[in-house]
Amino acid sequence: MYRKIMEYLTEWRSSPYRKPLILQGARQVGKTYSILEFGRTQYENVAYFNFETDPLLVKTFEESIDPGYLIPILSRMSGQTIIREKTLIVLDEVQLCERALTSLKYFCENAPEYHIIVAGSLLGVAVNRERFSFPVGKVDMKTLHPMDMEEFLLACGESELVGQIKGCFQNDTPMPAVLHDAALTFYRQYLVVGGMPDCVSKYLETRDFILVRHTQDMVLQSYLNDMSKYNSQNEIKKTRLVYDNITVQLSKKNTRFQYKLIKTGARAAEFENAIEWLSLSGIVTRIYRVEQPKKPLENYRDIDSFKTYVSDVGLLCAKKDIVAEDVIYLSSELDDFKGGMTENYVCCQLTANEYRSYYWTSERGAEVDFIIQREGKIIPLEVKSADNTKAKSLNVYMDTHKPQYAIKLSTKNFGFEDGKKTVPLYAAFCV
């Protein structure tokens, strides 16, 4: 399955400023597969090491982190010669050996001719930095997210449809009705399957939503296990409470995160560490309210008002135990949840395309779902789960702040009218 990360990795390989690369992201987003596929196609050989399955590896790095010492030993352990420029060295589950992270500094300074990528699922939260320093400034860093809608369509063999979608987005011209309906069908399938590569693969092989759900449940269980393994004892229960509560928050008309919905009398001080853990692990995405839509947006964020979204919309459906047919056939029983689910989907697409998103509210209660900086302009995005594109809040925003244009995401076809660019939900990746 094609992943956009391949383009970044290819540029990294040929860059004269290349440093050792840290590829991070939540579990099961395809880090190892992407790296090994990249190594298979771009290098003569790959020397792969896994700190989780090879305890001797940790001892090796504890003995010395000098590249001159490590290279011969790693060559012997992998059973192949590690050659400068021609071998890709891969260190997986690196969060289990902080000493290996520190070694990247010396690979950068003393052995830049070796190409090395390390991968880890919980680098933001699992590494204890009391003994060894993180190699600040000596590494390149990249985060891999679940597959977005474009990657899902390409995996389904729909490259022509992707091209048509991109053309219509660029020119604000409606898709032919047949193609529009077909793309909406793929969009609803994506809501159920999500972007975890293993889930997408299972779906394409079997078209069996029950098997996909089983795979998603296993991913969710691995997240729960990580909450116990890489968390302090008194934070485990709080972290699980917050994670379980996110689906409840998204079912509310106001999707802003509310501590009182976790439990009666809950306060920020009690749960802020748990939310930070989930955010750093890549399991959830947190977006803040922006008080004024001005550059730089980060300067105007309200740290006390935010929304949380699950990192993958398929996992959201699995957590909520939503039946696939209810999503595919637009069951009215999901009416209370459709808005939050659609917002979560759009957030996933924006995050996968490396936007830092915010939301906006007025003093009188108008709310715009997402505020982003696109092509140097601050753009508001309004999200609707159906073809009802009446957007009173968006109109309030436009009257107040006069953006160059706005984007409305719904099930309506492409178009542009009154300064609003109408984009079907299946094309959110184009943004």
Brief sketch in words of this structure:
The protein has 431 residues and is of the alpha/beta class.
Describe the structure.
With 431 residues, this protein is an alpha/beta fold. It folds into 2 domains: 139 residues, Rossmann fold (3-Layer(aba) Sandwich); 278 residues, no CATH class. Helix content is 46%, strand content 17%. The longest helix is centred in the middle third of the chain and has 21 residues.
Secondary-structure topology with pairs:
Blueprint: H1 5-14, E1 21-24, H2 31-42, E2 45-50, H3 55-63, H4 67-78, E3 87-92, H5 98-110, E4 115-120, H6 123-126, E5 140-143, H7 149-155, H8 159-171, H9 177-193, H10 197-206, H11 209-229, H12 233-250, H13 268-280, E6 284-290, E7 301-310, H14 313-319, H15 324-328, H16 335-352, E8 358-361, E9 367-374, E10 377-383, H17 392-401, E11 406-410, E12 415-417, E13 420-424
Helix pairs in contact: 1-2, 9-14, 10-11, 11-14, 12-13
Q: What would the keywords be for this entry?
A:
single chain; five-stranded parallel sheet; 17 helices; 431 residues; Rossmann fold; alpha/beta; 13 strands; 46% helix; eight-stranded mixed sheet
